[in-house]
Each structure stands twice: as C-alpha cells, then as structure tokens.
Design goal:
By secondary structure, the protein is an alpha/beta fold. It contains six helices and ten strands. Helix 4 packs antiparallel against helix 5. The two termini are 34 Å apart. The chain binds adenosine-5'-triphosphate (ATP) and magnesium ion.
Length: 253
Amino acid sequence: MTSPVITVEHGVVGYDGRPVLRDISLTVTAGEVVAILGANGSGKSTLIRAVLGLVPISAGSVTLFDRPLRRFRQWARIGYVPQRLGAGGGVPATVREVVASGRLARRGVLRPPGRADRSAVDAALRAVGLADRAGDPVSTLSGGQQQRTLIARALAGQPELLVLDEPTAGVDAASQEAFAGALRDFVADGGTVLLVAHELGPLRPVISRAVVVHEGRIAHDGAVPDPAGHHAEPDHDHVHPHCYDEPAGLWSN
Ligand SMILES: Nc1ncnc2c1ncn2[C@@H]1O[C@H](COP(=O)(O)OP(=O)(O)OP(=O)(O)O)[C@@H](O)[C@H]1O
Ligand SMILES: [Mg+2]
C-alpha cells in the first residue's frame, strides 16, 4: 500500500574528504510529512541535497520513487525549495515569472503556457498569499516574501514530493499558518513532504514524523519531540532526547 518515495540506506556524504553524514538510513513513504531536525551544521541540508543528487554520496544508496537515484529522471515529480534565495543577481523577474518557472519541467520550455499552467500558478500564488504581489519584481520583496515565492514555485509544479529546506525561517506567524494550511492541502491531495525546520511552530500538527540528525547519524526517528524536549509517545525508544546539543528554542512553538 504505502510505497517508499525516498529511501536512503547507509548513506555517507562528505566534503573534501571530511565526513558530514556517516551512516544515514531513512525511508519516507507516500503521504508522510517528515521533518529533519538538528543543530546548525549537523548536515540537514546536506542530507536533502544528497537525496536530490545535488551532492554525491560516497557510500550507501538513495532511491526515489523506487528508482536508484542515478537512473531517476522524473524530476517533475519533485519540487525543491532551497534554504535561501541567493542574493538577487539583478534579474528583474516578477513574482509571477519566478512562480511560473516551476511549471517548466512539466510543460517543456518551448511550449507556451496553457490554461492549466496559469491556473496552477494562480493557485500557488494564493496558497502563499502573494497573489496581490504577482506583478512586482522579486527583488522588491522582503526575505520572507521571497521565501514564500520559492514555495509557490515548487507548489506550481504540482509535484508528488516536496522537499523544503527551512521553508518557514524568517517567515512571519500569519504566513507560517498559511503555509501549514497549504502543506495540509498538498498532503490531502496525495503529496509527500520532506522538510528541514528549526522551529516547527504552526507546522507541528502537520508533521507526521521527526528525524534528528546528530554527529552524522540519525539520533531519533519517530514522534515529533514536544517543546519540553520529551517524546510525545511514552514508549519511545533508543535515544534520549537530550543527547544532542540544541538550543531550547528548537522545540519551542
Ligand atoms: N559545499 C560545501 N563544501 C564544504 N563543506 C560544506 C558544504 N556544505 C556544507 N558543508 C559543511 O557540512 C556541514 C553540514 O552542513 P549543512 O549545511 O548540511 O548543515 P545544516 O544542518 O543544514 O545546518 P543549518 O541548520 O545551519 O542549515 C557543515 O560543517 C558545513 O560547513
Ligand atoms: Mg541547512
């Protein structure tokens, strides 16, 4: 029934020979919303970049939709929001243009956008509350609004899997609520989500499972830790929640 969307088995990733992820095994199945937690520099971004083939794994394996990563080609099935929009390179793209670029993989670059493209872009703009800014240059938006633009771009592609690196960092409370609602709709429509977060906030009720990365390994995989640092389920397993080094704010609402 529940098919794996992402499988990482004994993944090892390093930069310049320095190991960051030492032995990571992780499965995300269809319909799940999995949050990756951990301290700054613990390798959360590295993990999702390895899942997407953006950094090579030096050992172990990654499969996407039951295909080995190196043979996976159906990138339209995946939407990715990186951790930060680069310092604007001076391209005067409007919000609508950036969001519409999320349709490219789906329609092919040379075909003009059709009605389905336009309605997907409109729906994505509404989902992040930026419909009224659609004609504005992205460079005139605040950091949080730019982040929401990237989320809309990923949603516009109508992917089956959304991979989001700290999608709500720097996003205000009302927009976090809106984003939580958009995620809920996305999952209700059959989507799967892997996201990195520090503060779960309004996302907390949407998260089905939490994975904590610590010292290159998965230190916890299961219930979402509550703000006090204890697991929600009394029968929690192997790892004590205080074994990783985190500011208390990580678990706060
Ligand atoms: N391109 C790179 N080249 C060399 N080292 C890198 C590179 N990217 C990340 N690192 C290192 O890998 C480690 C993990 O980085 P990563 O960005 O995955 O952490 P993170 O858990 O996402 O942190 P944060 O919470 O700050 O986003 C860090 O020590 C970082 O310095
Ligand atoms: Mg990161």
